């Protein structure tokens, strides 16, 4: 009895000891956690923190947020939080579900009309293809460090491999490598596509060479069930054979459910676009579908619905749909398109084909001419005035004189050089100014013709004569620069006014920028440079390109403007004091104020008339201490006089006198004088515009620039081992 009692006491004591030990250990662990000897695992859904869990060093995560199917680490690799050991702080992210990209995906390309259908696809290239086939791969941003020992961050396929590995589509090899340069096998690509499509494997042998011991048994069986593969004629699948580019095109189309539209492809490709892929090749339609054309082919394949007549934007290109809802094919050049729509007008086709050049709003330099586009992708406006710029019926800018246009274009050819950025470019404007004012090719020549102040009708005639004869007065020089400036897109206009304190008749060009008017005087610039008219740059250091109105190197008098003229020397250079108070009534004296003293001055009055010969005011001139000053005084309105009423008187009876017999004098016969024989430089013959009538498309023999959206599955055939090219440089792994 005593022995039994003792045994019971021993058992109870042992039990209490075990319980005490557990309690002490739990207390110790709690103490460790409380002291901070743990790692933090943070769970994210996007940027939202779901929870943070403390885990002992080397321990496992006990509380994983529920309701999420998959997780990835910061490197994009798939992980199971319930089984991993934690040795450092860790961030885990909800893994987004993989979704197939919709629409056309161009992931294989050819080069020099060669597709290389029997070439292989590397594992790195396959990663790039898979990344392009999913809408979610770009959410997996490559992180610092690397997942695979043989894929550095600076290698071409790094981003693709990180992204696709993060989605669990490819996982590499057990030794931690990815082997991006090795050809991907038929089984490896099939396994990745099954994961992409969400097809689960089944344990059933479909091919004699895919046994239960082969790692790809389940995916090969699943793909067979889906109808993606049928194998070779001998009944085998050859899972470890490198997949060919042709097989890749066919297999991917089947996985994506795309069936190439054979009728549309035959219509678009009278001959095969690839020398090494004849039209009877088993994968011809799949290859054309995934590699040839792009948006244009998508349009031809009917992927753009409800197309109405007019212009349609396809990616970065623009095409025209005619009344039959078919694409128009154009020859290179300008075409006038009339649909009765807002888009009617002149368009440019850069190369023979379907595409029409897209246009940005504003002035455009194209094909040696200037055009204007009112709104994005619209036509070149025709029969249209944009300020001082006129655009003719073919949309091209014109001065109104084709011969003058030819001269100006020839002079500006080296300046413009066919570049749009030279329009409204001050450097180009300066070059045009110097080409006229700083050349010995132009010279001064007094001509008998004169124009009234304020007139502008002289410009067109003077411009042409100056380019033809290379000689003229300030009017001709100004007109030559005027039309060069307009051809460069500037809203330039001519002025006929006065220059210097003696108000000498003169012409120059004005351009307004940002509300400021600037003077451009090519003739005086040339005169000061050459010393003509007694002027010289050496003396005054003048540059008469772009002088702000009211602050110019020379004193200019504008028609209709009133100026208080500061002192000038005989060359027309602005001075400073004294102050002159000008009269406002005709014949009155002026007053000069010097040191507060007012001194009356005698005045000389000269009439100012407009282009119709009507007096608009007077130029008042005074002389003080040997210096002459001038000012414009506008003509005051005439006073209104009240006329007294006229008394009515009875009408006088007047008997009309018969007219005298007048014999008309015969007209004097005038013999016209033949014009003087002037030898002028013949104008350059303008090239006639391109006939805008579109012609039927020629037989397409060239390789198209863009590939087509994949559509139809085809059974893969035996593949080769040649090295091929893929359209992507990014990839993922299996």
Q: Which tags fit this structure?
A:
734 residues, alpha+beta, five-stranded mixed β-sheet, five-stranded antiparallel β-sheet, elongated
What does this protein look like?
The protein is an alpha+beta fold. It has five domains: 1-32; 38-95; 99-308 and 711-734, no CATH class; 330-398, Cholin Binding (left handed beta-beta-3-solenoid, Ribbon); 402-634, C8orf32 fold (Roll). The protein has 15 helices and 32 strands. The strands form eleven sheets. A five-stranded mixed beta sheet has the order 2-1-7-4-5, with no helix packed on it. A five-stranded antiparallel beta sheet has the order 24-23-22-21-25, with helices on one face. A three-stranded antiparallel beta sheet has the order 9-10-13. Strand 1 (39-45) and strand 2 form a beta hairpin. The two termini are 73 Å apart. Mean pLDDT is 75; it is low at 23-35, 141-146, 535-540, 565-576, 637-649 and 651-734.
């Amino acid at each position: 009895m005593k022995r039994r009692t003792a045994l019971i006491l021993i058992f109870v004591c042992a039990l209490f000891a075990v319980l005490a030990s557990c309690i002490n250990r739990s207390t110790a662990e709690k103490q460790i956690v409380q002291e901070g000897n743990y790692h933090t695992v943070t769970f994210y859904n996007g940027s939202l923190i779901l929870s943070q869990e403390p885990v002992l060093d080397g321990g496992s995560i006990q509380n994983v947020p529920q309701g999420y199917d998959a997780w990835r680490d910061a490197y994009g690799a798939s992980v199971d939080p319930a089984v991993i050991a934690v040795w450092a702080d860790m961030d885990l992210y909800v893994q987004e579900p993989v979704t197939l990209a919709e629409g056309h995906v161009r992931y294989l390309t050819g080069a020099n009309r060669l597709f290389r259908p029997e070439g292989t696809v590397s594992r790195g290239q396959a990663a790039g293809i898979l990344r392009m086939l999913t809408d979610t791969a770009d959410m997996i941003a490559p992180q610092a460090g690397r997942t695979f020992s043989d894929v550095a961050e600076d290698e071409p396929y790094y981003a693709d491999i990180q992204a696709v590995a993060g989605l669990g589509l490819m996982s590499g090899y057990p030794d931690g490598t990815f082997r991006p340069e090795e050809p991907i096998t038929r089984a490896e690509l099939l396994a990745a596509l099954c994961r992409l499509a969400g097809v689960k494997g089944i344990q059933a042998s479909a091919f004699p060479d895919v046994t239960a011991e082969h790692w790809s048994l389940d995916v090969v069986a699943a793909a067979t069930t889906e109808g993606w593969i049928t194998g070779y004629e001998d009944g085998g699948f050859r899972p470890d054979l490198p997949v060919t580019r042709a097989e890749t095109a066919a297999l991917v189309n089947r996985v994506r459910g795309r069936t190439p539209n054979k009728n549309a492809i035959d219509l678009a490709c009278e001959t095969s676009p690839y020398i090494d892929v004849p039209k009877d090749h088993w994968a011809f339609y799949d290859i054309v579908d995934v590699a040839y054309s792009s948006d244009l082919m998508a349009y031809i394949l009917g992927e753009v619905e409800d197309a109405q007549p007019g212009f349609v934007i396809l990616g970065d290109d623009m095409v025209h749909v005619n009344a039959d809802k078919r694409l128009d094919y154009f020859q290179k050049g300008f075409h006038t398109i009339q649909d009765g729509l807002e888009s009617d007008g002149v368009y440019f086709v850069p190369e023979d084909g379907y595409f029409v050049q897209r246009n940005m709003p504003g002035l455009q330099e194209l094909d040696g001419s200037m055009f204007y586009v009112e709104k994005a992708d619209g036509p070149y406006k025709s029969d249209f005035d944009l300020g001082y710029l006129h655009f003719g019926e073919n949309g091209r800018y014109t001065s109104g004189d084709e011969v003058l246009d030819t001269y100006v274009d020839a002079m500006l050819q080296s300046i413009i050089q066919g570049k749009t950025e030279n329009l409204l470019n001050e450097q180009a404007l300066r070059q045009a100014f110097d080409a006229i004012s700083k050349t010995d090719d132009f010279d001064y020549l007094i001509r008998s013709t004169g124009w009234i102040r304020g007139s502008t009708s002289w410009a067109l005639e003077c411009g042409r004569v100056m380019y033809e004869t290379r000689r003229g007065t300030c009017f001709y020089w100004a007109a030559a620069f005027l039309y060069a400036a307009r051809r460069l897109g500037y809203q330039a206009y001519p002025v006929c006014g006065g220059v210097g304190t003696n108000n000498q008749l003169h012409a120059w060009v004005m351009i307004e920028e940002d509300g400021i008017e600037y003077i451009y005087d090519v003739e005086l610039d040339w005169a000061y440079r050459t010393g003509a008219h007694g002027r010289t740059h050496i003396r005054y250091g003048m540059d008469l390109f772009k002088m702000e109105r009211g602050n110019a190197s020379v004193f200019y008098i504008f028609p209709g403007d009133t100026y208080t003229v500061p002192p000038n020397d005989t060359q027309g250079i602005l001075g400073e004091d004294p102050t002159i108070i000008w009269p406002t009534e005709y014949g009155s004296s002026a007053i000069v104020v010097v040191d507060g003293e007012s001194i009356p001055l005698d005045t000389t009055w000269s009439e100012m008339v407009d282009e119709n010969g009507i007096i608009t005011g007077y130029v008042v001139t005074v002389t003080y201490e040997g210096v002459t000053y001038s000012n414009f005084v506008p003509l005051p309105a005439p006073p209104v006089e009240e006329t007294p009423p006229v008394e009515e008187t009875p009408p006088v009876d007047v008997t009309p006198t018969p007219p005298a017999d007048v014999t008309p004098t015969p007209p004097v016969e005038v013999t016209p004088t033949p014009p003087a024989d002037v030898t002028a430089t013949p104008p350059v013959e303008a090239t006639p515009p391109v006939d805008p009538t579109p012609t039927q498309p020629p037989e397409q023999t060239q390789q198209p620039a863009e590939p087509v959206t994949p559509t139809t599955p085809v059974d893969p055939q035996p593949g080769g081992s040649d090295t091929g090219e893929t359209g992507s440089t990014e990839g993922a792994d299996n």
